[in-house]
Write a structure and sequence with these properties.
Layout (H helix, E strand, L loop, with lengths): L2 H16 L5 H15 L23 H19 L1
Length: about 80
């Protein structure tokens, strides 16, 4: 640990000791955020979906999809009114 790092830690400890007890919870949440922000992201996992439905028989037309979209839109609009 370098001198400046030690000095900074010492100042941080002094600042923490000077905080009122009700601020410690907020400080804890902030420290969790800092740890989260500094974490190394995991390599994303690629999931292969190709062929997932290849054995299923679908008889869906463009008109079926349009009708379903219209039903969903109508339902949403009724709930918003």
């Amino acid at each position: 640990m370098s001198y400046s790092s030690h000095f900074t830690r010492k100042k941080a400890h002094e600042a923490i000791d000077a905080l009122p007890p009700e601020s410690l919870e907020e400080l804890s949440r902030f420290l969790e955020f800092l740890r989260f922000r500094q974490r190394v992201p995991e390599k994303p996992v690629n999931v292969q979906l190709e062929g997932l439905w290849q054995d299923e028989q679908f008889d869906v037309t463009d008109d079926d999809i349009r009708a379903l979209r219209q039903q969903v839109s109508d339902h949403v609009l009724q709930r918003v009114k």
